[in-house]
Please model this.
Amino acid sequence: MLGELNDTQIDALLKAELTGRIGCQAAGVVYIVPVNYVYDGTNIYGHSAKGMKIDVMRENPEVCFEVDKIKDITTWQSVIAWGKFEEITEMDEQQKVLQKLTDRISPFIMDDSVTREHGFVDEESDIGTIKELIMYKIVLHKKTGRFEDR
Model:
């Protein structure tokens, strides 16, 4: 059976998954990249070192976000959401976002060395001292979801 996810199912999938994909485009280049994220029911939050993804989103903040849960080829759920990239520059909000990301992702990290490689820090006061991190949110304005369950 193919079908559409309702709003509750869409939010549940966005909250349950750890990795999604951001689709962005600028200067004639379309870029899709996987990201770890956390969803608070309104916005997608993430972090990144400076690079192509950040450069493209700064140039054109209108983005698409996709996440899916795939059991097999005929049993899956997928959500696509559209929104606007906003860089978070205020330190208190950066700390809150990094804490949300750390709380959500760290239980799934098997090797503590990975946390430093990905910009996670032991103390909130260490933000920006080990690796320059760019915190951002995607303010969602439209979401849709589909599923197949045979």
The first strand starts at residue 2 and ends at 4. The first helix runs from residue 7 to 16. The chain has a mean pLDDT of 90.
